[in-house]
């Protein structure tokens, strides 16, 4: 039986517990959350990738990896991603439940101990992070940022966000700019670690079979001094304001296929009705955009829709031949108007409910997925289970979908227009 509990430890630190006795493995995450910017996203990604390599007790990546592997293949890794106007980054560890080890050996506290040592007692050289690991991880970060430019689809979405969310923290990418990443020094990174420990909202989560009480207490003990911090809660959902007039912007790149990103904004309150609508509109292989724009009219190679609930924004990104750009844009808009007028079948609505619920229900199979599920719930101030959300979705009516579709307005159209031969055929 699945259980979820969340408690505030004070000082902007919260502790969440996802428990299901069927889980055979366990996951622990410590996330530091701050407002996004080029600088903060780059520093967060670089900082935690370095912290995951070693600590003062295990002063090399080899030593740390071997120590984790000896704990039945446990692991320590970093993560960094964007939640609307915020960047969340930190460390996580995974390990099998103690009950499943040989002789029920207790490894949970050992694995969590390694993670905590990486956070609180990092390996330093002359008071700074290892120059070797710093240089290695900085290069990896710069390579990841540069890869956005080579992946034209990802590049188009990244550049579109700068226009869609102009003036908002959500305009910045997950990893920041190449210039900011290159400019980071070891001194900067150590200062940023102190800044996070003093100012970031901290979300700790444990997903397990319920046998992790000892390591949970270990975690709480290390974070107890943070209760004295003056850190305010975050409001994650801040809908992006609709532009007075739709913005049309175009740039040219040497490639074979143009990329078009369209943003539609809405203040519709029920995000799950919107998620269902987005699935109907372009989020499934039987959606309105797939069936009409791609299959029937052959106006694009792909044109899925995705809803960013923290910003009240739906994106449709397309791969389109130059001669079809205008027709594809107009047909996508026409399909939205058709949905707003109720021009979709009951079969599409029911198939979309099954499609999205199948996806939601699959989260139950993994402690890691359920941990991510409740992290998303936390950003919405709710704690619904997949079952509860599916019950809500199954009661959504055609009229609600129609009203939801009618609430969306075109905000931005950004096009990267093909202007020659591409590298790697992009």
Describe this structure in words.
The chain is α+β, with helices and mostly antiparallel strands and 426 residues long. The protein folds into 2 domains: 3-228, 2-Layer Sandwich (Cytochrome Bc1 Complex, Chain A, domain 1); 247-425, Cytochrome Bc1 Complex, Chain A, domain 1 (2-Layer Sandwich). Helices cover 43% and strands 22% of the residues. The protein has 15 helices and 13 strands. The protein has helices at residues 38-51, 61-70, 108-120, 131-150, 152-164, 178-183, 186-199, 213-223, 271-281, 288-296, 325-340, 346-361, 367-379, 386-394, 398-406; strands at residues 3-10, 13-19, 25-35, 75-83, 86-96, 124-125, 128-129, 201-208, 247-253, 258-265, 305-308, 313-320, 409-418. The strands form 3 sheets. It has a 6-stranded mixed beta sheet, with helices on both faces. Strands 9-13-10-12-11 form a 5-stranded mixed beta sheet, sandwiched between helices. It has a two-stranded antiparallel sheet with strand order 6-7. The longest helix is centred in the first third of the chain and has 20 residues, at 131-150. The chain is globular and about 60 Å long. It starts with a strand and ends in an 8-residue tail after the last strand. The model is unreliable at 422-426 (pLDDT under 50).
């Amino acid at each position: 039986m699945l259980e979820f509990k969340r408690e505030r430890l004070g000082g902007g630190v919260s502790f969440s517990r996802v428990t299901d006795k069927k889980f055979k493995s366990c996951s622990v995450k410590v996330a530091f959350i701050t407002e996004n910017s080029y600088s903060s996203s780059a520093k967060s990604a670089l900082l935690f990738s370095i912290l995951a390599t070693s600590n003062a007790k295990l002063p090399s990546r080899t030593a740390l990896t071997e120590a984790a592997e000896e704990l039945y293949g446990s692991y320590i890794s970093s993560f960094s991603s964007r939640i609307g106007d915020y960047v969340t980054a930190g460390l996580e560890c995974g390990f099998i439940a103690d009950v499943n080890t040989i002789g029920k050996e207790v490894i949970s506290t050992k694995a969590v101990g390694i993670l905590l040592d990486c956070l609180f007692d990092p390996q330093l050289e002359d008071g700074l992070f290892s120059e070797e690991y710093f240089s290695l991880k900085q290069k990896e970060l710069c390579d990841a940022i540069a890869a956005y430019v080579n992946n034209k689809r990802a590049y188009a979405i990244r550049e579109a966000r700068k226009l869609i969310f102009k003036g908002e923290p959500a305009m910045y990418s997950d990893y920041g700019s190449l210039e900011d990443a290159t400019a980071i020094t070891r001194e900067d990174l150590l200062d940023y670690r102190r800044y996070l420990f003093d100012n970031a909202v901290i979300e700790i989560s444990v997903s397990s079979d319920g046998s992790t009480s000892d390591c949970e207490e270990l975690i709480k003990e290390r974070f107890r001094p943070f209760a004295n911090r003056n850190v305010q809660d975050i409001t994650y959902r801040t809908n992006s304001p609709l532009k007075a007039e739709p913005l049309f912007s175009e740039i040219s790149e040497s490639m074979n296929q143009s990329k078009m990103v369209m943003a539609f904004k809405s203040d519709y309150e029920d995000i799950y009705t919107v998620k269902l609508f987005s699935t109907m509109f372009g989020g499934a292989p039987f959606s309105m955009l797939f069936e009409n724009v791609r299959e029937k009219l052959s106006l694009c190679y792909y044109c899925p829709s995705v809803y960013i609930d923290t910003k009240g924004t739906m994106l449709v990104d397309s791969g389109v031949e130059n001669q079809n750009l205008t027709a594809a844009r107009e047909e996508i808009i026409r399909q939205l108007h058709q949905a707003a007028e109720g021009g979709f079948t009951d079969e599409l609505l029911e198939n979309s409910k099954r499609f999205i619920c199948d996806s939601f229900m699959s989260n139950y199979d993994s402690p890691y997925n359920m941990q991510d599920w409740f992290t998303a719930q936390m950003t919405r101030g709710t704690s619904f289970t997949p079952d509860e959300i599916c019950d809500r979705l199954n009661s959504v009516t055609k009229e609600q979908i129609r009203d939801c579709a009618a609430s969306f307005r075109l905000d931005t159209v950004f096009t990267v227009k093909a202007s020659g031969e591409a590298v790697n055929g992009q």
